[in-house]
Amino acid sequence: MMDVRRAGTRQRGGDPAAGIESLHAFSFGSHYDPDNLRFGALIACNEERLAPGAGFDEHPHSHTEIVTWVVEGELTHRDSAGHASLVRSGDVQHLSAGAGVRHVERNEGPLPLVFVQMWLAPLAPGGEPAYEVVRGIADSTPYALPAAGAMLHVRRLHPGERTAVPDAPHVYVHVVRGTIRIDGTDLGPGDEARITAARDLAAQAVGDVHAELLLWEMA
Q: Cα dist. 210→63, 159, 177, 179, 207 in Å?
């Protein structure tokens, strides 16, 4: 079964006056929808846009696996465990909050920053915080997230190119750019597909531009 949700249905959040625009795919913050709390291990998929100089001041997380994909610009990260890094387009950032960590996320660069941040529930709570950045992850190279029983597939498709959708109990597809077609349904930027019991499916880039998509394979 495939549940398609369009970009226009995402809940708007953030603080536009402070240069922060957020679009939420799941219940988040003050927006609560009891029928949209999670899909598989995924509990948040936020599209964030930060103007130069804008950002999120130090705030806490716990018992959450946080994965960030930068679309445009540079994300500055600092956390209470002593990690500091600059995350750019093509990098995968993973913060494992463990029993608790605090961090800062800001756009300290001269250009607008756009990123997709995804939160996953761990299989077991607690543990020590951990942090990793994979620089320039290669196309179709999966990023394993064993703490959540999940794997991220990043695909960049040429026009007409196809990629297999993983056969898994839960697959979440987020379109970053371009247009893709899955099982006869077209999805554009910001659209998502929540696929249950995926079998023998493929995603194809349609139109005359490249497509980029994030696929979560979850047990």
A: 36, 5, 8, 8, 8
E strands present in 121-161: 130-134, 143-145, 150-157
The region, left, alpha or beta by phi > 0 then psi within -120 to 50, assigned to residue 123 is: alpha
Buried b (16+ CB within 10 A) or exposed e, 180-219: bbbeeeebebbbbbbbeebeebebbbbeeeebbbbbbbbe
Burial label for 178, CB within 10 Å (0-12, 13-18, 19+), is buried
Average pLDDT, the chain: 96
Q: Any residues with CB less than 8 A from the CB of 13 and at least 6 apart, and which?
A: 22, 23, 24, 28, 29, 31, 46
Phi-psi category of 129—alpha, beta or left, where left has phi over 0 and alpha has psi -120 to 50? beta
Position 76, amino acid: T
In whole angstroms, give the CA distance from residue 124 to residue 137.
27
For residue 143 the two structure tokens come to 């990023």
* Distance, CA of 157 to CA of 43 (rounded, Å): 27
pLDDT in tens, 151-168: 999 999 999 999 999 999
Q: Is the pTM of this model over 0.85?
A: yes
Burial (0-12, 13-18, 19+ Cβ within 10 Å), 35: exposed
